[in-house]
Amino acid sequence: MLTDELQTIEAEAGRAIGGAVSSADLER
Q: Which domain of life, per UniProt (predicted)?
């Protein structure tokens, strides 16, 4: 179903954003 695909994409995007934020915090 389309909703499941969107939820998966949102979850992956959230993880990617969270990882980028964590990396930025470590570099400071």
A: Bacteria
How far is the C-alpha of 13 from the C-alpha of 8, rounded, in Å?
9
Lookup: tokens for 8: 């998966």
Q: What is the DSSP string of 1-28?
A: -HHHHHHHHHHHHHHHHHHHHHHHHHH-
pTM: 0.56
In angstroms, rounded to a whole number, what is the distance separating the alpha carbons of residues 24 and 18? 10
**Distance, first Cα to last Cα, the chain:** 42
